[in-house]
Design brief:
By secondary structure, the protein is an alpha/beta fold. It folds into four domains: about 90 residues, no CATH class; about 290 residues, Aminopeptidase (3-Layer(aba) Sandwich); about 180 residues, Glucose Oxidase, domain 1; about 140 residues, Transcription Elongation Factor S-II, Chain A (Up-down Bundle), CATH 1.20.930.40. About 35% of the residues lie in helices and about 20% in strands. The protein has 25 helices and 22 strands. The strands form five sheets. An eight-stranded mixed sheet has the order 6-16-18-17-19-22-20-21, sandwiched between helices. It has a five-stranded mixed sheet with strand order 13-12-11-10-14, with helices on both faces. The protein has a four-stranded antiparallel sheet with strand order 8-7-15-9, with no helix packed on it. It is globular.
Length: about 775
């Protein structure tokens, strides 16, 4: 100790300065023998090097310079090492060993054990992917709580434009604020919606040839109607057309009776209402009646069946969004041009009950239905009483309604301007337990869970956007109007969309309507979530038979009636919609006023909360991968194979094309350029510095826009909203090109070479544009033009 004091008090003369260490001791009368020592270093200029500044009363305390200089140097080195070691340990403890901070591609991150303290002040641990899943499961509410939320949301009817739906909007907004999401807001639109006319309800009658009423065919629910049906009345014979698919109408046209100029009756199923009406219109029908056939709803739900007096609701717009402002957002200040969607029908459409259908069908004459239709009825178009005809009157009206989409956001830390969007329809024609209740409950639960995870250290790389959509029953109106409002920027911002609509219609199998970009990620996720029905099995093992190709049992193409469709086909954002179903059987109460919590719970043998929680886990793990991984886990190379599967079907027409001096060479070449661009991007990523945030962001932007590349830039968004050449609708798509080419065999006189060349150019240059965009900068594009 004496040597240490001597070292502190020693002075060393320098040419330009002198340092002196002065120790001050303050005596405390209450603590005998105890003293406080202070060290003071004074630095003096060269001209003062011979002076020693010592106060008179402290002069006796100055120690002398040590005589052993070697010993002093040893102590100096030891002290320096001690200071260095302490500084290193302090720095290590202050910064922690956060591998995910230096390598965001790693599947682990640092979290705090004490959520109320800052990350710098709390103890940290490394969390691997398995631990992260446990963390998500820890903060996810119990099955009982999820069930209560579903029951509360579906406690009453809440159609778009009603007071009930506006109250539910306020309730969801209050939950987002209660959970303390970073941002919460509402997005409002004014849209014209169709409603049934209670003062003058729709009607169906038997009339004679002069138009006099013979008998009313009772429509047992006066509120039932098809939004966007044309209005007026139509009278004629009646033709039975099975499910109303194209093949059904083609058979009638070829073998009779022809549907042209007649009313047609079809049963629910196979395709949606809008497609049925579009097919009927294409074959010349004057109107369409749609009924639920009891043979399609044999499922007994704890002794309950769909009552024969119940009709099923459904809109008939062949598209999504507000059909009176196609391509434009329905903002209040916009002066809309006088245009309508090409998907609006020009014929009448009306749902009817099984009771009403049997009264009509049992009176038909004509040939019996084909055996493959498995129907006991005759085809019509006349009735057993030749004087009878059917008259349909539709009196729906249009009214402007303000709809509200509710948003809540959790900001990402690295790429906050890139979003993962999770949405659910909020409105429903009836209580809507399956239609909107489950989806909205899972939406709220996921928002709450991820806020809790973030508070406990989970670091989102990208932002999460939770959205409750309005007017979904009218064809995803709320979601599509939002897309239209931000069409120029969403492909730069939204990395993926996850729809929670129609989430649970059973518990036997999980289906995913999805963009191909998400397929491989979905496979990975469903391997990791336990089946809600079979203990000890994953969802993958439950759904996919051993040795079978899993895509055939899980993956379905995006369809126009899916809440995810507009995001991909219109917005160019990869999207997915998950649904638990009963396979071949159908949940009978969907789109009826009988869609209650109790019936849906009975449908899944009392396991509704468990199935909902399992689906929440699937979506939650998908969100974690999309929001946390350093590189977006989207399989951009998949489109090379998807396009190849489409265009190989063109090969069988090689001889017909050659005879007309037509070639598909450049379309094949464009597909090859895309394949090469995808492979090059993959190699560039693997060979790059994974710690470079500049490179990572550049790669993510290119990956995120792949879906957008497949939107045709050569057609108008107002004339052809669904511009995607694979998932869209219109003359610019691969499907339209193949259908036109097929005419060379089925109807050569209808083949138009000029139109075909234009279609081929649209497809080819969209593919080539996708290949060029994926290549990156213009100096990286390498194709053989």
């Amino acid at each position: 100790m004496d040597a240490f004091k001597s070292l502190l008090s020693g002075t060393t003369s320098k040419a330009h300065s002198q340092r002196s260490y002065t120790i001050y001791r303050n005596t405390d009368s209450n603590q005998a023998g105890m003293s406080q020592v202070e060290m003071k270093m004074a630095e003096q200029e060269a001209e003062e090097e011979n002076e020693v500044s010592i106060t008179h009363d402290m002069a006796a305390l100055v120690t002398k310079k040590p005589r052993d200089k070697r010993k002093a140097m040893i102590y100096l080195i030891l002290i320096a090492l001690l200071i260095f070691t302490l500084a290193f340990l302090f720095g290590y403890l202050a910064t922690g060993s956060c591998q995910s901070c230096v390598d965001p591609r790693a599947e682990y991150l640092v979290v705090s054990d004490e959520p109320d303290q800052s990350m710098q002040d709390s103890q940290k641990t490394i969390l691997y992917w398995g631990d992260l899943k446990l963390m998500f499961q820890k903060y996810l509410n119990s099955e009982e709580q999820i069930g209560k939320t579903i029951k509360r949301i579906s406690r009453t009817n809440h159609p778009a434009g009603s007071d009930e739906i506006n109250l539910l909007a306020h309730e969801i907004m209050s939950y987002f604020r209660k959970y303390k999401l970073d941002h919460t807001w509402a997005d409002s639109h004014y849209v014209p919606l169709h409603f049934s006319n209670r003062l003058n309800p729709n009607s169906l009658k038997f009339v004679d040839r002069s138009g006099a009423v013979i008998e009313d065919v009772i429509i047992e629910d006066p509120d039932i109607y098809c939004p966007y049906s044309t209005t007026g009345n139509s009278t004629g014979g009646l033709v039975y057309a099975n499910y109303g698919e194209k093949e059904d109408f083609q058979l009638l046209q070829d073998q009779g009776p022809s549907p042209k100029g007649q009313l047609v009756i079809v049963r629910v199923g196979k395709i949606n209402f809008a497609e049925k009406v579009a097919n009927a219109e294409a074959f010349g029908a004057k109107g369409l009646l749609i009924y639920p056939d009891p043979s399609d709803f044999l499922l007994d739900v704890q002794g309950q069946r769909l009552p024969r007096s119940t009709a099923i609701y459904g809109h008939v717009h062949m598209g999504t969004g507000d059909p009176y402002t196609p391509g434009f957002p329905s903002f209040n200040h916009t002066q809309f041009p006088p245009i309508e969607s090409s998907g609006l029908p020009k014929i009448l459409a009306q749902p009817i009950s099984a009771n009403a259908a049997v009264k009509l069908l049992s009176a038909l004459s004509g040939p019996p239905a084909p055996l493959e239709w498995r129907s006991p009825y005759r085809l019509g178009s006349n009735f057993s009483d030749p004087t009878r005809q059917v008259q349909l009157q539709v009196n729906n009206y249009k009214s402007s309604v303000m709809i509200n989409n509710i948003f809540g956001c959790i900001e990402g830390q690295v790429e906050p301007d890139h979003y993962i969007v999770i949405g659910a329809q909020r409105d429903s024609w009836g209580p809507g337990a399956a239609k909107s209740g489950v989806g909205t409950a899972i939406l709220l639960e996921l928002a709450r869970t991820f806020v809790a995870m973030v508070k406990n250290g989970f670091q989102l790389r990208r932002s999460l956007l939770f959205v409750s959509w309005d007017a979904g029953e009218f064809g995803s109106v709320g979601a599509t109007e939002w897309l239209e409002g931000y069409l120029t920027m969403l492909h730069l911002k939204a990395a993926a969309y996850i729809s929670l609509d129609n989430a649970i219609l059973g518990d036997e199998k999980l289906l995913a309507k999805t963009s191909p970009l998400l397929t491989s990620l979905i496979e990975n996720i469903i391997h990791q979530v336990d089946s809600p029905k079979r203990s000890g099995q994953s969802i993958y093992d439950q759904v996919v038979p051993q040795g079978a190709k899993w895509e055939n049992h899980v993956i379905r193409p995006l369809s126009v009636d899916s809440g995810a469709y507009a995001f991909t086909a219109f917005g160019g954002v990869p999207a997915v919609e998950f649904t638990f179903t009963e396979g071949a059987q159908t949940y009978p109460f969907l789109n009826t006023k009988l869609d209650t919590y109790e019936r849906l719970n009975q449908m899944v043998q009392g396991r509704l909360p468990a199935v909902a929680k399992s689906l929440a886990e699937v979506v939650g793990l998908l969100i974690m991968k999309l929001s946390h991984d350093q590189l977006l886990p989207l399989d951009y190379s998949c489109y090379s194979e998807v396009v190849l599967q489409h265009i190989t079907r063109f090969n069988e027409f090689a001889s017909e094309l050659k005879s007309r001096s037509l070639t598909l060479q450049w379309m094949y070449s464009a597909r090859g350029d895309y394949m090469r661009a995808a492979n090059k991007l993959k190699n560039d990523i693997y060979g790059s510095d994974e710690k470079s945030e500049k490179l990572n962001r550049m790669y993510n932007v290119r990956i995120m826009r792949v879906e957008f590349y497949f939107l045709s830039q050569y057609v108008s968004a107002t004339d052809n909203p669904f511009r995607h050449i694979l998932h869209g609708r219109g003359q610019h798509t691969l499907t339209a090109l193949l259908d036109h080419l097929t005419l060379l065999r089925t109807d050569p006189t209808s083949f138009n070479e000029s139109i075909f060349r234009k279609q081929l150019a649209l497809v080819t240059w969209t593919l080539q544009g996708a290949a060029n965009a994926l290549s990156g900068d213009v100096w990286n594009i390498d194709n053989n033009l």
